[in-house]
Design goal:
Layout (H helix, E strand, L loop, with lengths): L7 H4 L6 E2 L5 H11 L3 E5 L5 E6 H9 L26 H11 L3 E6 L3 E7 H11 L1
Length: 131
């Protein structure tokens, strides 16, 4: 199967680690480190996607010298979340990532809701394994 025909659901990580908007920044960073992941999907009280926060977001906070003792995920998350359907191809996912300058795409099924996360690392690993 060529890369164009490979569905996102084949490469996504189905174990989704989440946070809430009121999760303290320090706790969110610890989750990223402990789980060895690059992003958290932020869910609201109705378990709907409210945002995404990535390790790059935290790097930007540190590099900007922001004082964050009481900061929460809501203070730094991206709230205009771009998602991908599990049936969409990885080429579509890669194009969406490049166009929007992002490295993580929540995978959202129209009926089931959030079903996974796809990262540039997932796509790269697949591409290298097929080379």
């Amino acid at each position: 199967m060529d890369r164009q025909g490979v569905p996102t659901e084949q490469l996504m990580t189905p174990e989704i680690i989440t946070a809430t908007p009121d999760t303290h920044v320090e706790e969110a960073v610890n989750i990223l480190i402990e789980q060895n992941i690059g992003s958290l999907v932020v869910l609201d009280e109705d378990d709907q996607i409210a945002g995404v926060i990535t390790s790059n977001d935290f790097l930007n906070v540190v590099s900007d010298g922001e004082n964050i003792p009481d900061a929460t995920v809501a203070d730094f998350m991206t709230d205009e979340v771009i998602t991908i359907d599990p049936e969409d191809s990885i080429q579509t996912a890669a194009a969406r990532m490049i166009t929007n300058g992002i490295s993580h795409l929540p995978v959202e099924d129209k009926e089931e809701g959030l079903v996974g996360m796809l990262s540039t690392t997932d796509i790269t690993a697949y591409s290298v394994s097929r080379a």
